[in-house]
Specification:
Elements: H1 2-11, E1 13-15, E2 19-21, H2 32-45, E3 53-57, H3 62-72, E4 76-79, E5 91-98, E6 103-110, E7 119-127, H4 131-143, E8 146-156, H5 161-167, E9 172-182, E10 185-188
Helix pairs in contact: 2-3
The structure holds guanosine-5',3'-tetraphosphate (G4P) and sodium ion (NA) (2 copies).
One sodium ion binds near residues 61, 124, 125 and 126.
Pfam families: Pribosyltran (PF00156)
Protein name: Xanthine phosphoribosyltransferase
Pathway: Purine metabolism; XMP biosynthesis via salvage pathway; XMP from xanthine: step 1/1
């Protein structure tokens, strides 16, 4: 998606060897107009999949997921990372290991918001090592929901997330595919 690539070139900052900081429009400050355009793009990509629901993980997946839900006219459910006092005990849950942070988080979805047979689209901000999407796949499997694919805002193709999802036959649609960081610039596939 041209608009997104241009925005990454303009406002993205490279940290170390593998982190792209996009706090100016996605992970801290959010640009609603860009999110709306991305939501329409996800909607176009998955228009024929009869999606019932969108799944994401808090917190950075929520903004793109909500705009995709707006365009597709379906509800959005975000998995929670921390045990909430008000969360019931009847949850689907999966462990998610973060290579970036070297920690394991449990993600949870209340069983009443994900039912057997529902067709779901997973949306997330980054595809790096694929662990967050993998956690949502485990949850969908517990619920016996059908995952039609994963819509990703920024995919880093030099990490192994895409391969992990390919191996499970998951369709992945990324709006920007980063090939490498070259001399402080972002190169796209
Ligand atoms: P994975 O899900 O693909 O395996 O990602 P990984 O464990 O490597 O990343 C852990 C966290 O870091 C995730 O956010 C992920 O979205 C984010 N992340 C990974 N690579 C990048 C990057 O290049 N830039 C930025 N800005 N973030 C990256 P999280 O812990 O779930 O946090 P949240 O922001 O959603 O709350
Ligand atoms: Na994320
Ligand atoms: Na994040």
């Amino acid at each position: 998606m041209k608009l997104l690539e241009e925005r990454i070139q303009q406002d993205g900052r490279i940290l170390g060897d593998e982190i792209l900081k996009v706090d100016a429009f996605l992970n801290h400050q959010i640009d609603p107009e860009l999110m709306a355009a991305m939501g329409e793009e996800f909607s176009r990509l998955f228009a024929n999949d009869k999606i019932d629901k969108i799944l994401t993980v808090e917190s950075s997946g929520i903004a793109p997921a909500v705009f995709a839900g707006l365009s597709l006219h379906v509800p959005v459910v975000f998995a929670r990372k921390n045990k909430s006092l008000t969360l019931p005990t009847t949850v689907w849950a999966a462990d998610v290991y973060s290579f970036t942070k070297q920690t394991t988080n449990q993600i949870m979805i209340d069983q009443q918001f994900l039912k057997s047979g529902e067709k779901v689209l997973i949306i997330d901000d980054f595809l790096a090592n694929g662990q967050a999407v993998n956690g949502l796949l485990k949850i969908a499997s517990q619920a016996d929901a059908h995952v039609v694919g994963a819509g990703i805002v920024i995919e880093k193709t030099f990490q192994k997330g895409r391969q992990i999802l390919d191996e499970q036959g998951i369709r992945v649609e990324s709006l920007a595919r980063v090939k490498a960081f070259v001399d402080g610039q972002v190169a796209f596939l």
